[in-house]
Amino acid sequence: MVTLSSNEIAVLTSLKDGKEKGVREIDADAKIGEDGARRGIFFLSQKGLVDMKVKERKAIILTEKGKSALPSLPDLKLLECEGKNIREIDREILPFLGPMKTFGFISVENGTIKVLAKDKAKYPILLGLKSPEKAEKPILDELKKRGYVEEKESKEISARITEKGSGMKISSGSDLKEITSEILKSGKRKFAKLNIAPETVEPASSGKIHPISNAIDRIKGIFVSMGFEEMEGNYIEEAFWNFDALFQPQDHPSRELADTFYIRGKSDLKDVPKDILARAKAVHDHGWKGSWDIEEAKKLILRTHTTVLSARTLAKRKKGKFFAIGRVFRNEAIDFKHLAEFHQVEGIIADESVTFRQLLGILKTFYSRMGFNKIRFRPSYFPYTEPSLEIEVFFEPRQEWIELGGAGIFRPEVCDILGCTYPVLAFGLSLERPLMMILETNDIRAFYNNDVDFLKSVKREFIGEKG
Questions:
Q1: Range of the domain at 26
Q2: φ, ψ for residue 369 (rounded to 5)?
Q3: Does residue 241 form part of some domain?
Q4: For residues 286 and 264, what is the distance between their CA atoms, to the nearest angstrom?
């Protein structure tokens, strides 16, 4: 017997007419929200009740910098400089002389500006900013160079009911599969009939530890044996600790709704020491040549990485070895290698005697105890560390190197904000990816599909050393 959730029932009901529908169309019918429609489609497709299609497309969207430039494009201020010598022009708008001359809006004769066209509404850069998806390549290139727009990949999900799905009998509104205390108290509702005759019930199997729980226990044991202390924290975080304390600019694309889950309301930042706030403003204003906005730092989010725990820890304890294993959240489309919620393994070492070579040794020891014997490091770039590297391990069944994490030494700006006097070694590692390799599955969603057969197939001890 196939049991369906309320979202799955709503999606299946919407698709009963046999038409292929997208997420928005299904939500318009079912009123379960676009996320509810996506989840319903995915789980129905796993049960063979709908065919799911995913179309990838690229979209050009405005960045925060582009949105702020839209009302007052700096180029257009040059139209107010008729008769001025270029030496008199504000340095902030001087770089835009080139585009204004290229598009025939001004000319420079003997060092003096002459306005040739005054209709601001026809300025190509402004038109491109208003409709970037329609902009021609030279205009689009200019907008990208300025940081006004960026290219984002998105996925459109649609579904059509299968023959198996069409044959499913869906309970009416009076037959409920989800029971609340209010429904039970009312005594007025009917429930779906269940056949509990002994011959229809499959023998119960014994309980089993989930592979992710098993892996977390194993990893904790490795780090504790290496002298690390565990860090813990909340899923809901302040943007200050998640971004600003780590010297991430306030106009960085990862802060946008397309990448980060925001929570309604704001924090008062009472848990942030005043000296750290002051240093953050000074470091951001100097490093990014802008005005740091404390209101942006007050926003509440679902943490996007476990490095936020490292920032909080270093603000209180300037020396030591710490690790964390926790869930993080990214606003990503779900597919075979991406999830909106997943785990990260985080670690930092702060001490006057630490070296880059020591970081390599710790990572090599950790992965060898996880069962990976061939390990190599490659130079890379990460926002919080310099120098930085990627860790790769050799996966024997596929005979290929696979990247499993990043590491490095915290940038001086991060240490300045947090008040660290010692160098800080840092690493951020994947949890689900090495498990996919060890368990030879090509789909990260296998860990979260509640597939009993998959869980039964996993041996109790499957990572590195026994015990």
A1: 6-57+154-200
A2: -75, -15
A3: yes
A4: 30
Amino acid identity at 170 = I
> Is the pLDDT score of 173 beyond 60?
no
Does residue 344 belong to any structural domain of this protein? yes
42 & 77 share domain: no
What average pLDDT does this structure show over 375-389?
Answer: 92
Dig out the tokens for 364 from the structure.
């090599």
Half-sphere exposure of 142 (CA within 13 A, CB side): 18
Give me the number of domains the chain comprises.
3
Q: Which run of H or of E encompasses 285?
A: helix 274-288
Q: Between the CA of residue 281 and those of 67, 138, 292, 384, what are the distances in Å? A: 23, 36, 6, 17
Q: Cα-flanking dihedrals φ and ψ of residue 42, to 5°? A: -60, -50
Over residues 437-453, mean pLDDT: 83
Q: If you search the block for the tokens 């902009």, which residue do you land on?
A: 135
Please enumerate in sequence order all residues whose Cβ is within 8 A of that of 246, keeping only pairs 6 or more positions apart, or say none: 307, 308, 311, 383, 384, 414
**HEC letters along 312-350:** HHHHHCCCEEEEEEEEEECCCCCECCECCEEEEEEEEEE
Rounded to 10 degrees, what is the CA torsion of 99, 100, 101, 104?
Answer: 120
Other Cβ atoms within 10 Å of 265 Cβ, number: 9
Residue 196 and residue 289: Cα distance in Å, rounded? 69
Dihedrals phi, psi of 230, to nearest 5 degrees:
-85, 140
Domain CATH for 20 = 1.10.10.10
Q: Can you give the pTM of this predicted structure?
A: 0.59
Do 220 and 350 share a domain, yes or no? yes
Average pLDDT over residues 280-295: 92
The answer on 87 and 124 residing in a single domain is yes
Please indicate, yes or no, whether residues 383 and 437 belong to a single structural domain of this protein: yes
Band (192; pLDDT cuts 50, 70, 90): low
Same domain flag for 51 and 79: no
**In this predicted structure, what is the pLDDT of residue 25?**
93
In the prediction, which pLDDT does 467 show? Answer: 35
387 SS3 class: strand
Query: Which string of DSSP letters, residue by residue, matches 145-157?
Result: HHTSEEEEEEEEE
Cβ–Cβ < 8 Å for 385, 409: yes
Q: Are 323 and 230 within 8 A, CB to CB?
A: yes
* Dihedral sign from CA coordinates of 416, 418, 419, 423: negative
Which pLDDT score, from 0 to 100, does residue 409 have?
97
